[in-house]
Amino acid sequence: MTVYANSPTGPVDWERFLSQRAQKMKSSAIRELLKVTQQPEVISFAGGLPAPELFPVREIEEACNYLLRKEPKRALQYSTTEGHPPLREFLAATVAKYGIQHGPDNILITTGSQQALDLIGKVFIDPGTTILTAEPTYLGAIQAWRAYEAEFVTIPLDDHGMCVEQLEETIKEKKPCFIYVLPNFHNPAGTTLPEYRRKHLVKIARKYDLIIVEDDPYGALRYEDDDITPISVMAPERTLYLGTFSKTLTPGLRIGWIMGPMEIIQRLVRAKQGADLHTSTFDQMIANDIAQRGILKVHVRRLCNVYRQRRDTMLKALETHWPEDSSWTHPQGGLFLWARVPEPIDTAQLFPKAVEAKVAYVAGVHFFPYADGGHNAMRLNFSNSKPELIELGIQRLGGLLDAELEQTK
Amino acid sequence: MTVYANSPTGPVDWERFLSQRAQKMKSSAIRELLKVTQQPEVISFAGGLPAPELFPVREIEEACNYLLRKEPKRALQYSTTEGHPPLREFLAATVAKYGIQHGPDNILITTGSQQALDLIGKVFIDPGTTILTAEPTYLGAIQAWRAYEAEFVTIPLDDHGMCVEQLEETIKEKKPCFIYVLPNFHNPAGTTLPEYRRKHLVKIARKYDLIIVEDDPYGALRYEDDDITPISVMAPERTLYLGTFSKTLTPGLRIGWIMGPMEIIQRLVRAKQGADLHTSTFDQMIANDIAQRGILKVHVRRLCNVYRQRRDTMLKALETHWPEDSSWTHPQGGLFLWARVPEPIDTAQLFPKAVEAKVAYVAGVHFFPYADGGHNAMRLNFSNSKPELIELGIQRLGGLLDAELEQTK
Questions:
Q1: In sequence order, what are the beta bridge partners of A134?
Q2: Which residues of B are less than 8 Å from A144 in CB distance?
Q3: Which superfamily does CATH assign the domain made up of B16-55+298-408 to?
Q4: Alpha helices (H) in A214-261, listed in sequence order
Q5: Please, which residues bridge with residue B155 across strands?
Q6: What is the mean pLDDT of residues A274-295?
Q7: A276 vs B8: CB contact, 8 Å cut-off?
Q8: Substitution target from A119, A139, A282 for chain B, most B beta carbons within 10 A
């Protein structure tokens, strides 16, 4: 308890001072729930964490030593809001290979991809502005945009991502400001939007002159088949592309980026000036050093090999240990799959029992903006646990599901 | 120019999608102008940069190596929004010495102090919300809060900081949400609010039940006399205290903090979840290591010795080289002083000539929220230039001022 040593007037009624948006802000259900699942004996499929044993620690140490000997005055000083120029050049050159014709001035470095979502909210969302998203959808985007008092309209998602066939009707009725889409290895669903659906999405966005926000944190982590053309290549004039090093390098450094038409990047730069001046110079230069030396590429290949095996272990364990009426997505990459359990079971209600049985997941309901779906679904992360624990954890969950089904008979 | 390779519909009219607040956001005049002054031959008193030759580079390198050997999985992983717990404990213990009775749970680590200003805007400011500040005032605060469509009411500042004697009248008339105050070594004015004025400010804030935002980036950089009791010690129940490592350690790491009553810290934590999830884990742990090993304390003492000398050099050079009718503040610490030139001279109009003469400053007008003052004033930074350059730069400015006065005769 805070001691108000010198306070004759007593505590302040802070509620009285809150902005309208602050009154509506909720704490992230997931971040709160992760605290529960961090007990060491719990096998957690709940978080979205990369495998820490794979962090390229030695290479990062080398980068630190190199930068602090070679350019300490630059690495530790204030820098420009736009981001470290060599890193922006590297990113522009990288995406050029995928056919994205953006230069360094089309790129803004952000403090993780979450800040990109926040700045987009700041620049586009007034109270009541409508955002179109598939559901389930990424919780961090909901949280960022709810803080600007956005409304959400949703269309369903099937095993091939957003059901874009329903876009036109929804747009006509709800008039959204932009379409939010996670085309590769969706969080939480693990689905990938096929090329024909991307093309349809672009066609509709053009017809109704809408912006597209393409969030692609996992794109580089593909475990099978070929890359699919990014939406920002199909419609560079209206797409903001969001990338991050959190999944390919390390999340602790907080480096993301937004790529898009220069006139809107400049608006986002202004918003970032007020938000945090610039992203950590040192972290940007570490990431740049790792990327420029070609280490990132090698590292991503290694991540793919390990994560592919973990995904396969989880898929096989689900097949072996889960009751017959369950189903799940088969992600081609990324960190997550989405599992549906037999109908009478409510995954949010099951959660405390799961933690008691030393296994954790995120209940599907948390990924629905208005908590009106996903009651018999859950998100399972496969990147953060070793194969033997994945096997054991899925077995534990299978046992729990069997017991529940037995009770409801 | 961006090539719209696949864009049959042509460029998008982005203006159409902008939020109300984005339409009002301006680029920071100072950040734009700093680009001009970064030519190597210009002696720049314009920025607010610490002296890069004093960065504790070797100590930071040691911290990196230690952390990456001892705790790499923690240092590079996602962490909690509230901030690295040992760092929050260190900060709580540090402020306890100054009489501030806040624990770690009263502290939120932010991505630089600028993010603290942004989160305060997010949590308190609705369109039209009024903020009370002295003028001139810190430009970054104006920029952060203007992004939430705040209005500003101002009271003057004299050689002892905010003229708090005028507070009550202004509050009665304008009903602000909070009072923004930079009590120590004000940016841009270099003034320090004496204890009697702090007490009066607290008395008035209590009488009208207002919040106080106490921004203290320079407090540790005191070159003479004793510390004055922080406002957050006098009124812990209603004060949000903002601190940063940008001036005492290095700005490139982007570590700041907000301290205050727990209920409002929790609201700010929610806002930060949506804004960037958390501040760089690695940067927080580096700062914590430097602080915990006692290096920061030694380093700050060294900074004070060097910056004191630079301040004294500037004060003496002003005395020697500037025309008789000019005046300036005598800062007891910090990075800046505020100089007033004889009346007919407009410092904004003089600026291009100064850059031509290879010396730069920031014109006073930029520190007035509505650009309606400071026309014959300028901010001069003394931390970023070595004494011989300070002497030379002030001499150049003196010559320019003499020439201007000669012309207007």
A1: A155
A2: 274-275
A3: Aspartate Aminotransferase, domain 1 (3.90.1150.10)
A4: 231-234
A5: B134
A6: 97
A7: no
A8: A282
